[in-house]
Amino acid sequence: MSYSVAVIGGGAAGLLAAIGASEHDAEVILLERGRRLGARLLAPNGGGRSITNAGSTEHLIQSFPGKGRFLCHAFEIFSNRDMLDLLAEEGVLTKEEEGGRILPVSEDPTEVIEALEARVKASGVTVRTQAHVTGIERQEGRVRPGWRGFKIQLADSEPIYVDRVVLCTGENPDLDEDDGRVWAEQFGHTIVPPKSAIVALHTEEDWPARVAGAVLRGVEVIVRAAGKEVTRYKEDVLFTELGLAGPAILKIGEQAVAAQNGCPEPVVIAVRTDSDLQVDDWEARLQMALREHPRQLLKSLVARWWPVSLAEALLEAHSIPPEVMANQVTKAHRRQTAEILDEFRLHLKKDPAPETAMVTRGGVDVSEVDPNTMQSLKTSGLYIAGELLDIDGVNEGYTLQAAYSTGYVAGWAAATEPSE
Ligand SMILES: Cc1cc2nc3c(=O)[nH]c(=O)nc-3n(C[C@H](O)[C@H](O)[C@H](O)COP(=O)(O)OP(=O)(O)OC[C@H]3O[C@@H](n4cnc5c(N)ncnc54)[C@H](O)[C@@H]3O)c2cc1C
Prior knowledge:
Helices cover about 30% and strands about 25% of the residues. The strands form four sheets. Strands 1, 2, 6, 7, 8, 9 and 18 form a seven-stranded mixed beta sheet that branches. A six-stranded antiparallel beta sheet has the order 11-14-13-12-15-16. The two termini are about 25 Å apart. Helix 1 runs parallel beside helix 13 and helix 3 (about 70-75) crosses helix 13. By secondary structure, the protein is an alpha+beta fold. Flavin-adenine dinucleotide binds near residues 14, 44, 49 and 398. The site of flavin-adenine dinucleotide (FAD) has 33 residues, from helix 1 and helix 13.
């Protein structure tokens, strides 16, 4: 049997890779070792899992600290909007929840799997479940003369010959010999060993949920435990539905969580807008702005330094009325606003939801994969997508969207890229 593209793994990435390839006229076979496709899309907790996030491309990129640049092109080619359109075309109604989390209206993830399965089948993809791939070899000229293809071995049936392979075998905690990472290594890739990382800090305060997606660029983040400074780092901070994320948090997160152990009070995460300025400098700036624009709202003036949503949420959280006119701001509120412009504080939550605070990072090193096509830079004709790549981000729909986007791009490129 021969096909132009084989997609190995029928999860989020594999389903979209099969759709991307077949929409671009490839003869595609999708091989899934489980009984059904998309098994991991099923909620472990009986619903409530986000299937993507409504955030802007920039927001999605920010959610993958250090890997955003790699994902940028994939998010542009197949965005969260494209995913929602696809689901809508297949009759899945979706709703947006706090923090941009997108869920099916039914809250039944089976509906999403069935929709993707229907699209895959309608696109003419040959789907084989219980098709356990046991090995992949480079095969010279078997499919077409002069073309370097692949031979795919299966546990229970004859091998399949293909021109291109898209590896979408996900992240399997138990590394066995039938794992995408083993094959990727065999084809010359470096595997970043799995390591738990803290990518988000959950805070006692819930106002960050109101501004989820807002970013403060180049701010100084300081961790304090029992009044003593633990660490500080200057980078971008992203507000999420549960607290803080982004490059600064990736850097200081581990120390913040470690400091919490044994500390009786919640650890403080302080954010300084501009470490070169002090409260008096802010008050002088604010005073000038208030004087120059007496009929503007306080929140609009504060929005000179922060995103307006953040200005509003922070002022309210400190009991300062954001809608008050500049000429009616009291001296006490002016001073207080200057203080939070200088530094505002959040407190680490004692019992964070673990699956959204930590990710196990690891997988195929993305510096060895072309971000425009997901093609391996080590072995031509081999494409890698989804969680098999070392790209984990904060959950809440982001990692699934990364799987859809990289999968679609890989499938498309595998179907259309000229051969070596
Ligand atoms: C408990 C839990 C909760 C999560 N919650 C969220 C959430 O709320 N939002 C979010 O965005 N993300 C969430 N994630 C992450 C998300 O599920 C993954 O990012 C996504 O499933 C990755 O898709 P994938 O296609 O790369 O891999 P997978 O979905 O893991 O698919 C890989 C597929 O490859 C198949 N396969 C593997 N080896 C072989 C082989 N040798 N032969 C044939 N087939 C093979 C597997 O059976 C599997 O079906 C969660 C993950 C977990 C574990």
